[in-house]
Amino acid sequence: MQKPKILVVVLNWGLGHASRCIPLITALEQQGFEPIMASDGLALALLTKNFPHLNSYRLQAYEVRYSRKPTFLKAVLALQVFSWIKNIYFDKKQILAIHKKEKLSGVISDNRPGAVLLGIPSVYLTHQTNILGAGQSIANALHWRLIRAHSHCWIPDFTHNLAFAGKLSQHTTSKKVKIKKIGLLSQLKADTPPVTKKHICILLSGPEPQRSQLEAILLQAVEFSEVPVVLIRGSDKELKLKKALSHLKIIDFATKTQVQHILERSHFVIARSGYSSLMDFCALGIKAFLIPTPGQPEQEYLASYFSKQGWATSCKQEAFTWRKLEALENIKGFPTFEAPDFKTLFSIFRA
Questions:
Q1: pLDDT, mean over the chain
Q2: 274-291: average pLDDT
Q3: pLDDT tens digits for 10-54?
């Protein structure tokens, strides 16, 4: 008997969307489905590296451009809205073509709103049902118009009263789409015995040029580290060091197995405050120092929210120094991780 085919469509906007879809794809296989992956760029590269045996499709890239100066970021992104609308149209055409070929039983779209099909369950996966920042009301109205085109909206957040995403996952009810908080999604699992802490991990991801700018800042600061440091760059761009550091190990990309191995042996991690990374850190219960991407209200809010909760500590990119890491001694750490009930979630694809 042929397994039901589920298309998992992922936005290539940093590596966070791809990494949080890894547990979804793993669970789909475990529950007797045949996942098919669709994305572009580094996100697709990460997915195919973790699932080389699965079928995949390359979608047209969104080609998101960023300003080097945070003050101009919102304006630069706003100018690309019409280009994104065109990309949504192209996504719809490509998804329909894939459906005609594969005879899909469902679609899970991580923030690619064009990945929706009429007549079969179409899930929109997002933790940001409440967009913050300038133009908030207009942005939310547009976002919810796209969400309501789907049959279901899954929010990776706690199902109880505590909100892991804070204000970002607040939402109103909708008659057109079934909205559900599903628990947290992480590619990592804290199911191994405690191991000796050996190093500090720097985990980079996110869009350019900000990823490279933070990398340069941290490579200068890491000279002051008294313990070994492992840098996972999240980039395939060539890195030229001004001088070699014997206590620094550099990895361009890492599989989920490698990431887990490194983080489990880390005293703490230095990273962006991207939501997918935060779910991974919660899963392992590792201490985290967060540096939000300048000009991104979501990450700036999450860094502030997590600091106030005592789950992590943070500072702005331009204010980082190695001595600020001492603040990690005073945090209480992450709350208990809550994983989704995948069997119940995926029942919509068997109806």
A1: 91
A2: 96
A3: 999 878 899 999 999 999 999 999 999 999 998 999 999 999 999
Verify that 293 and 266 share a domain, yes or no. yes
Q: What does the block give as tokens for 138?
A: 């207009």
Residue 20 counted as domain residue = yes
CB 90 within 8 A of CB 114: yes
Between these two residues, 57 and 63, which has the higher pLDDT value?
57
CA 233 from centre of chain: 15
Same domain, 144 and 10: yes
Confidence of residue 72 (pLDDT cuts 50, 70, 90): low
Domain coverage including residue 83: 5-185+338-349
Beta carbons of 335 and 282 less than 8 angstroms apart = yes
Task: Please give the single-letter amino acid code of residue 139.
Answer: A
User: pTM for this one?
Assistant: 0.90
Taking the C-alpha atoms of residue 93 and residue 114, their distance in angstroms, rounded to an integer, is 9
Please name which of 4, 13, 41 lies closest in space to residue 276, comparing C-alpha atoms.
13
pLDDT at 230: 97
pLDDT of residue 71: 56
Could you tell me which of 89, 170, 101 has the C-alpha nearest to residue 136? 170
Higher-confidence residue of 6 and 173: namely 6
**Which among 271, 248, 249, 270 has a CA at the least distance from the CA of 258?**
249
Residue 80 in this model has a pLDDT that exceeds 60: no
CATH code for position 173: 3.40.50.2000
Q: Is residue 193 part of a domain?
A: no
